[in-house]
Amino acid sequence: MESLLTSILGTNLLTTVIYCALPLVFVLTYALIAVLGEVKISAWMQDRLGPMRTGPWGIIQPLADVLKLLQKEDITPSASDKFLFNLAPFVTFMGSYAAFAAVPFSSQYIGASLDLGIFYVFAVGSIGVVGLMMAGWSSNNKYSMYGAMRSVAQIVSYEVPAAMALMIIVIYTGTLNLQDIIVAQGGGIWNWFVFGGPKADVVLASGRELQASWANLVFLPLFLATFVMYYVSALAETNRTPFDIPEAESELVSGYHTEYSGMKFAMFFMAEYANMFLVSVVASIAFFGGWQSPYGTTIGALVGVPWLSPVEEFLWLAFKGFFFVFVMIWLRWTLPRLRVDQLMYMCWKVLIPFSFGIALVVGFLVMIM
Amino acid sequence: MSGYFTDIKDGIWTVLVGMTITWKHMFVKKVTIQYPDVKRELPDRVRNRLYVNMDDCIGCDQCAKACPVNCITIETLKALPTDDLGSTSTGNKKRLWMPVFDIDIAKCCYCGLCVFPCPTECIEMTDVFEFSEYHRKDLVYHFGTMTPEEITVKRAEVEEYQREQDAKKAAAAAAAAAAKKAEADAAAAAKASEAANIPPDTTAPVS
Amino acid sequence: MSYTDAFFYFFAALTVGSALVVTFSRSVIYAAFALLFTFLGVAGLYVLLQADFLAVAQIMVYVGGILILLLFGVMLTTRVTNAEITTGTVQGLPATVVVGILLGTLILLVSRATWNVQESLPDVTGTTTEIGERLLTTFLLPFEIAGILLLVAIMGAAMIARSTDKTKEAA
Ligand code: SF4
Ligand code: SF4
User: Fold this and answer.
1) What pLDDT does residue C152 have?
2) Does residue B140 sit within a domain?
3) How far is CA B196 from the centre of its chain?
4) Distance from C-alpha of A219 to C-alpha of A223, rounded to nearest angstrom
5) CB of B40 less than 8 A from some CB of A
6) What pLDDT, on a 0 to 100 scale, did the predictor assign at position A11?
7) A58 with A105, same domain?
8) Distance between CA atoms of residues A34 and C112, nearest Å
9) Residues A38 and A86 grouped into a single domain
10) Which residue's CA is the nearest one to ligand 2's atom 8?
11) Which of A27, A52, A71 is the last residue before a domain boundary?
12) Are residues A93 and A65 in the same domain?
């Protein structure tokens, strides 16, 4: 991908900028689709039709929403801390977007194939958290403040089980590199980590060989549980129902972005949706083979059209990401909101002990196998 | 401790059950009615916009009296004996001109109380419910059928007639008064003449 | 000036500038938020030095952990919606003395130290594996000791924070 761009534009700043902006294009398109999905799926699950009047079946409703947001008056409350108030949306969005740099969209496109992969994704996520705090505090509004505090407390707590869950995969593969983790799951659906990981030896992108055999089936229940734990923590980290306590409309108006309007609100909104997609993509990378197709090869490779393979891989990743976003929406319209104590119980007394336990077992098994 | 594990099991299981339910509902027939395109059939006795069939209205003012929010304004003029307003479909003869018959539908509370007292059943509630306007004054419906010129002409005519009638009445009254006076005078004279030959204890009734 | 130089000056300016805000801001909140940019700047400098693991660890630990804790501390101990969380100057003289001694030592160290200067950066791709191996072989003991120290600290904090009211605990 990079070589393609370089061959077209040459090595200059423009190439770099375009290369960096590609995920943004994707994230924006994705956000439009996700917003539509949210309204439509929620409607269908409640036996309604949802928006129907903007375009056929209301499919261009999100565009209309974007236009509305663009035209809206951008209000900065007079009692707010103007500087931080204006800075917060950017910090939050930066935190979400920066994480996409390490996401391998296909075997050919990855912003930066970092050896740190997962670690990096987790670290930059915390920048966004500071943005939330900033938003909550500078709004000078008690609802924003409580929303931000709850949000941050929740994210910080659930980062532990989420990181532990991914750590289990890292213990198995012995690498933090997301590209390597995906390569380890190549060769068919049964090699994905939810189904116990690779069943035959694989050579990772970094050249290291990962030994595996059908005995890996013992990992199936462990990794399956790990996936569930990761997904639950991811839900909590993105403040989605049933963990949407920070935005509990009935108590807190809408949490930390209560005071925001217009484009700045849109930034938070984008950051939230980008985060949703990010955790979905990480879930699909770590457990569902990332850009690997379920049949282990690509049509492009079969018919001998080399440029088709990356496109296919990208579509597979996007499909998996969208699927997990869909499940998030599905859960949102299924479950009621938890109480704060239930939330913390879930994190500290269920997810964390289990993740530590599984990590120990997996570590032991990796050692003896 | 076993409670802990059963809670986890129940937690996972009930979430799955819930998800099955919502999943099924995605494919259920939707209840939404696409309103401006598809309209719901209204029940027979809906109470919405009022309609007055002026051909049948006899201007009796019953509806205006019944209205709890006074949103009906009726002004009437008595028809001249020479005017023929025709009669209603129920056979009642119309005797009043109605220069003003206004219903301020913005004030109307759709109680339907104006409908029942109407002797000719000409005021009724229709099933029309989409009648929003940009200005509130457009919500005052004028049912009166007379044009302003007709109204002025009619007013003048009626006033003229009234004056004539008044004059006639005055004349008649004067005549009557004169006659009465004459009568009284005659009676008094008679009394006086009677008093002369009748004893004073048999008093005649004085009219 | 190459891109790298430009980035270096950008990150250096970011670090120093926001560090000055941290020091001189009268609002504790502002100081805490400015710390975010200091940490980011330092992380950027680490990246330029090809210490990628360190950079990410810097963000993870300082931004994700310490800064958030700091903000929580400030916001929970003061009246939350009060914008007037400010700092004042107390104990001027002792502070000056201590800071003066520290500054003197640092300057002395910086000027005396023999710096290992290289014309260009060694071509390192990824320090993670290396760090991991060193930590679990050569530096295993310090690593474990640090781990135990942190564990003890956590347990101590939990003990202190724990409710001493036995009746409450039973409920
Ligand atoms: S429906 Fe009720 S409120 Fe409306 S005009 Fe008739 S009597 Fe008045
Ligand atoms: S009650 Fe009927 S007839 Fe009488 S004024 Fe009203 S509408 Fe006319």
Assistant:
1) 95
2) yes
3) 65
4) 6
5) no
6) 64
7) no
8) 59
9) no
10) B57
11) A71
12) no
Claim to verify: residue B59 and residue B140 sit in the same structural domain: yes
Residue B101: nearest ligand to its CA? 2
Q: Mean pLDDT throughout C151-155? A: 92
Q: What is the pLDDT of residues B76-120, one digit of tens each?
A: 888 777 777 777 777 778 888 888 888 888 888 888 888 889 888
Residues A23, A43, single domain; the answer is yes
Rg of the Cα atoms in chain A: 21
Q: What confidence category does residue C170 fall into, taking pLDDT thresholds of 50, 70 and 90?
A: very low
Chains B and C touch (3+ CB pairs under 8 A): no
Q: Whose CA is nearest to atom 3 of ligand 1?
A: B108
Q: Say whether the peptide bond before residue A242 is cis (omega within 30 degrees of 0).
A: yes
d(C-alpha B119, C-alpha B103), whole Å: 18
Ligand 1 centroid–CA B33 distance in Å is 30
pTM, full prediction: 0.77
- C1-88: CATH topology: Four Helix Bundle (Hemerythrin (Met), subunit A) (1.20.120)
A141, two tokens: 């509004």
Packing angle of the helix pair C3-24, C28-48 (nearest 10 deg): 160
Distance CA B36, CA A196 (A): 54
DSSP string of B52-99, one letter each residue: E-TTT-----HHHHH-TT--EEEEEEEPPTT----B-TTSPBP-EEEE
Gap between the Cα atoms of A315 and A309, Å rounded: 10
On the question of pLDDT at A365 being above 90, the answer is no
Residue B60 belongs to domain spanning: 50-146
Asked whether residue B84 falls in the same domain as residue B152, the answer is no
Looking at residue C156, the DSSP 8-state letter turns out to be: H
A301: which 2 tokens? 């490779």
B61/B134 same-domain check: yes
A108: its two tokens: 């050919």
Q: At C151, is the pLDDT very low, low, confident or very high (cuts 50, 70, 90)?
A: very high
- Asked if residue B159 is part of any domain, the answer here is yes
Do A156 and A173 share a structural domain? yes
Position C171 confidence tier, pLDDT thresholds 50, 70, 90: very low
Residues of A in contact with C68 (CB under 8 A): 126, 129-130, 133, 152, 156
Q: Which domain holds residue A151?
A: 80-368
| Cβ atoms A271, A96 nearer than 8 A | yes
